[in-house]
Write a structure and sequence with these properties.
The protein is mainly beta and 242 residues long. The chain has four helices and 18 strands. The chain has an 18-stranded mixed sheet that branches. Strand 17 and strand 18 form a beta hairpin. The radius of gyration is 24 Å and the shape is globular. The N and C termini lie far apart (77 Å).
């Protein structure tokens, strides 16, 4: 028995070759990068803040910083290329892999996942509205595309199956992640959102607006699409950069 075991072991002279063939030791998996976001536009005054300090256009916020609004609205651009429009009195914390909205409304356009205390939203590129009340209840309205909603309990997975919310639907969740209702979005719902504060008055375009416009024209007739506002012209035909 001893002879069989020893004969199966390589001689010491071959150990360096075996180490080279095996390659370097595998280290720990890379940690997901922290999120950042750049302020693109501020409307209705200057009550948009980063960690409680007045924010400016082109200013960058990095996780775990918080972006908030009082009586102003604003648009930020995530690392993913997606945009987020914050309504008045909203509070968002940048994280790793998804932002956390603690209260208020955010409209997301593009490939950007979001979180609340009771849900994680995974997307591949879409337009959705996330609304979190003071009590912690949330409503996800998928205007175009689809969103996979994983229930969480105080930010941690519950093990319960995720719910896929398709375009033209909205999902209501309790503060503990329990599904309260899954409802269809009516023409009136769309008109209320598109004619509301997250679409009206903004000049910086939404990156995935073309997909939203195509979906509405083909699937939701009767909706009044907002007219884009052109950026102000500069003298002598100079281009405008932001």
């Amino acid at each position: 028995m001893r002879h069989r075991l020893s004969s199966a072991l390589p001689s010491l002279s071959f150990l360096p070759i075996l180490i080279l063939l095996a390659g370097p030791a595998v280290g720990p998996l890379p940690v997901e990068a922290s999120e950042s976001a750049v302020v693109q536009e501020i409307l209705d005054g200057n009550e948009m803040f980063i960690d409680g300090k007045t924010a400016k256009v082109k200013q960058k916020a990095v996780a775990p910083q918080k972006v908030s609004t009082q009586n102003s609205r604003g648009q930020i651009r995530f690392d993913s290329g997606a945009a987020g429009r914050l309504n008045r009195f909203a509070l968002l914390k940048l994280g790793q892999g998804c932002f956390l909205i603690e209260k208020g409304q955010i409209l997301v356009s593009g490939k950007q996942s979001g979180c609340t205390r009771s849900a994680r939203l995974s997307v591949r590129g879409t337009n959705y509205l996330l609304d979190v009340s003071e009590s912690g209840e949330s409503e996800i309205s998928v205007l175009e595309g689809s969103v996979e909603v994983e229930p969480l309990a105080d930010g941690e997975p519950t093990g319960k199956p995720a719910t896929t919310v398709e375009a033209g639907n909205k999902l209501r969740l309790s503060a503990s992640g329990v599904v309260l209702a899954l409802l269809g979005l009516s023409v009136s719902d769309y008109n209320g959102i598109l004619g509301g504060p997250l679409f009206q008055g903004f000049r910086v375009p939404l990156p995935a607006y073309g997909s939203l416009e195509s979906y509405i024209r083909s699937r939701v007739p009767g909706v009044n699409l907002p007219v884009p506002i052109s950026p102000p012209s500069l003298p002598f035909g100079l281009p405008r950069f932001f």
